[in-house]
Amino acid sequence: MKRREAREHALRVLFQLDHSDMDVHEAMLHVTEEHDVFYENLVKGTLAHREEIDASLAEKLENWSLNRLPKIERTILRMAVFEINHTEDTPGAVVVNEAIELTKAYGDEQSSRFVNGVLSKYINK
Predict the structure, then answer these.
(1) Which SS3 state, helix, strand or coil, does residue 112 take?
(2) pLDDT at 125 over 70
(3) Which of 3, 71, 101, 114 has its CA 20 to 30 Å from the CA of residue 92?
(4) What CATH number should be reported for the domain holding residue 63?
(5) Which three-class secondary structure state does DSSP give residue 69?
(6) Radius of gyration of the chain (CA)
(7) 66 DSSP assignment
(8) Contact 6, 45 (CB under 8 A)
(9) Arithmetic mean of pLDDT, 17-33
């Protein structure tokens, strides 16, 4: 599975888990039965570090609270922040670009600019 596809699958799982009591393994299998280490790491890592990620995002958001964000943008931001902060094999700029593409596909044009602005604070430290 290509990384772009893995990110899209991970987004679907994380979004689904944010709205249900489904088990993580069940949710992952619901999206795809294909086994992929990157996909699994994105899902499980984002969930494992969610409190830390949310606290970090809350500091970076200007005039927004995390709970006010649309759910898709919040999920994309969480996943991208996990990848930027906890993986070393993908440059931050690539992660931001992938997050923008996901936002364009699942959100709207303004959302992609917002996601870009927030994530740029992580790679321009």
Answers:
(1) helix
(2) no
(3) 71
(4) 1.10.940.10
(5) coil
(6) 13
(7) G
(8) no
(9) 89
Closest CA to 61 of 115, 7, 1, 2: 115
Q: Which of 110, 114, 109 is nearest to 80 (CA)?
A: 114
Number of domains in the chain: 1
Half-sphere exposure for 72 (CA within 13 Å, toward CB):
15
User: Strands, DSSP E only, in 3-57?
Assistant: none
Greatest alpha-carbon pair distance for the chain in Å reads 40
C-alpha dihedral, 74 to 44 to 20 to 22, nearest 10°: 170
**Tokens coding 46:** 């984002």
Distance CA 51, CA 103 (A): 22
Backbone angles phi, psi at 24, to 5 degrees: -60, -40
CA angle centred on 31, ends 11 and 71, rounded to 5° = 30
Backbone angles phi, psi at 90, to 5 degrees: -125, 125
Domain enclosing residue 108, as ranges = 3-123
Tens of pLDDT, residue by residue over 42-92, are 999 999 999 999 999 999 998 888 889 999 999 999 999 999 999 989 999
